[in-house]
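note to self: the first set is below, dont mix up w the second
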Amino acid sequence: MMPARPDRTAPRLSCLPVSGTATVLRAIGPTLRRWFAHRCAVCGIVPGAPVCAGCAADFFPSDTTRCTQCALRLAQSGDALVCGRCLREPPRYDATLALADYAAPVDGMVIALKFGHRLELARVFGELLAERMGERVPRDALLTPVPLAFERHAERGFNQAREIARTVARRLALPLAPDALLRTRHGAPQEKLTLDERRRNIRGAFAVRADVRGRTAVVVDDVMTSGATLDEIAAALKRAGAARVINLVVARTP
């Protein structure tokens, strides 16, 4: 008889209010870190790789058809497909690569990284992104994280996008420019705004502090929701002379 496959369904932390989730994760964080050390970051059962083969296939599938520009999941299959919104309103970035949809258990992992200080998950996400990228990015591309709002950085003590980008840069031997992007102003939190409000809120909020002329800029973030922030960053990078802008994100909201 074949052994039963382990139940790899992670608890859905995102069903809790963010404040409640953060409190719980801070309390149990040390215990979680000891338990999950050297085990699959999703199921916590299989030792060895950061994410076991079963969880990678189930929750980070490489064969999901997505819009090549914004990484929105598409129902049809094929190569070089573009969603209706990107056809109607072409974004200023050139491509987006997403590991998964923002759904269980990936959403819980992102929340645990941001609010539970589980920084080892940044390494896991970075490893998966580096593996998924393959040869899609030129070797002289400049890697840079989305800068975090000052208040959130002060609250967390770290920028999750920057931590993810460190691993990607190390794995692929790409130059990392952690401070290439500067937030010049801080608007209202984007989460509860409509798409038009998000665009207005983030307009003109970024400046470029690195020489990107003629280069491919690779922008790293944890979650892509509407794409408004990444679009504004792409506009700033192209004004500064970037030839192409590619987004690397852990999760894309469906």
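second set (the one i keep forgetting abt)
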Amino acid sequence: MLNKYVRTTIIAITKYILPVVLLLLLAPQFVQFSSQLTQTNQFFQLHQIAFLLVHSLFYLALYWLWPRIIHVLVNRSSHDITQEQINSALKAKWYLLAALVFFEVLVWWR
């Protein structure tokens, strides 16, 4: 019983908590040490409305087109892909969108 609990805890830590902690620790380092990002930030402040509109459209397109992209890639693949792998790839959409939104908020928060 204890062994199963430890196994579940380790899986949860490596799958959810560790990537979030690493992302929170490393993202400011990438943003802070780039002089090009300050120039880019000034550009985005000038074009803030257009930038938000284009990014919103990109996120909506990614959200709606993700299942089609996965099914096209599955159909082109010569490997045997199980339904569990397809479902996992379809759920990866949320991780990708969360990471993109996180970096978006990080840039705007700065």
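remember for set 2: The CA atoms of residues 75 and 81 lie 10 Å apart.
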